[in-house]
Amino acid sequence: MQLSQQISRPAMRIEQSRGRVLYTFSIDGKQLAKIATVSRIRRPDDGSLLGYQRPEVRSHIAEIRRYLESESPMIPNPIVIAFDKRVSFEPSSTGQADEQCIVGTLTIPVSNSDSDGDTVGFVVDGQQRLAAIREAGIARFPIWITAFVADDEEEQREQFILVNSTKPLPKAIIYELLPSTGAPLPSMMERRRVPAKLLHQLNVDRGSPFYGKIRTATNVTGSVQDNSVLKMIENSLSDGMLYRFRHANAIDEVSMTKVLKSYWSAVADLFSDAWELPPTRSRLVHGAGIVSMGYIMDTIADRNYDGEELSERRFYLDLEPLSKLCRWTQGYWDFGPGAQRKWNEIQNTSKDIKMLTNYLILQYKSLVWNRSRQSANPGTTERQQ
Question: Which residue in 116, 102, 107, 104 sits closest to 85, CA to CA?
Fold first, then answer.
């Protein structure tokens, strides 16, 4: 390995515990490949395990790259690197900054080879960020590095596992933070920004049937799971009632909130007993009930919406014929011959949600939609229920 060159960077040295030393310094992310590479996990012919890093996730890298190429990107968290013993640290003339930190210069040998293996450092955490920086259409991007000296790859792998096994930020907290953010976000989070805002409004608006009812990180006493409400809103935003309030340059969150309040107020009024019970005793406020009834909101809107605001009364009248068929708290759902299900056997799974949704939509169209069409025909005497 030819290491005839070197990079010197101002650095801070701290000793966290006996023999455990960390170095912190900055470097242009575009230049990091000269001193560190990624140890890809792989198995040679003898079956032994080499490396520890997973393959690059191209979609994740593309998301980070788009962010880096935006107007004011920032990556505050450091890249973690494991160096071998060829790096050296020289304290500055001022020596110790305080009892915990020594300021000095870290000297790092640089490979003059194009081979990924000819470096003194291996990336322990941050490979996707580094790949995005490498590929981004930007001239430079300084980043923080936290480094330690490892005896061998076993220690590198150990630190990799420890760094990446820490508990991630709970999704409930992320959902609560989203409404207060305005910066560009990865597409998955971006899709949930508006639903999170609407969920927040439903949960804090005293005129909402969901007031204080949605369980979040700051409302742990809520009974309805936040993820169920988010799914219901996302479905409608995709191609349902709420989609009608999405415009080219704006999203009418006020109108969206109004229609959600009107519809769910009608639901809460019609099924008042089931609405006040916890999910263990009522499938209406269970994930399956919230999501499937969300689809009924969209179906009712397809029949009634003509550009004018749909009232709670309009929703109630269309929902009322379903009341005798729903088994939210007791009895059996009649999904057809040989397909009866006890009320609490309905689970929050894609299969059960689809079955319940299809049943409710079919019954609604049979009891309300089709009859209203027949009543418009002079040859029939049926009238809308």
Answer: 107
Give the distance from CA 208 to its chain's centroid: 25
Closest CA to 60 of 124, 127, 146, 134: 127
* Residues in contact with 239: Cβ distance below 8 Å, sequence separation at least 6, in sequence order: 298
Q: In 3D, which of 136, 12, 139 has the Cα closest to residue 78?
A: 12
Integer Cα distance of 20 and 152 in angstroms = 15
One-letter amino acid at 385 equals Q
Beta bridge partners of 8: 107
Bridge-partner residues for 50, per DSSP? 42
- Please say whether the dihedral angle defined by the alpha carbons of residues 131, 137, 140 and 143, taken in this order, is positive or negative: negative
Q: Which two tokens stand for residue 164?
A: 């990446």
**How long a stretch of residues is the chain?**
385
The pLDDT tens digits of the residues spanning 244-291 come to: 998 877 889 999 999 999 999 999 999 999 999 999 999 999 999 999
How many angstroms separate the CA atoms of 294 and 232, rounded? 5
Average pLDDT of the chain is 84
Residue pair 229/210 in contact by the 8 Å Cβ criterion: yes
Tens digit of pLDDT for each residue in 27-39? 999 998 888 887 6
Beta bridge partner(s), residue 102? 13, 96
Distance CA 350, CA 352 (A): 6
Residue identified by tokens 């191609």 is: 239
Dist CA 212 CA 235 (whole Å): 22
Residue 163, Cβ neighbours under 10 Å: how many? Answer: 13
Q: Give pTM, 2 decimals.
A: 0.69
Taking Cα atoms as reference points, which of 295, 165, 314 lies closest to residue 233?
295
Between CA 275 and CA 278 the distance in angstroms is 8
Longest dimension (CA), the chain: 101
pLDDT (0 to 100) of residue 58: 76
**Which tokens in the block code for residue 296?**
């009924």
Cβ atoms of residues 97 and 91 within 8 Å = no
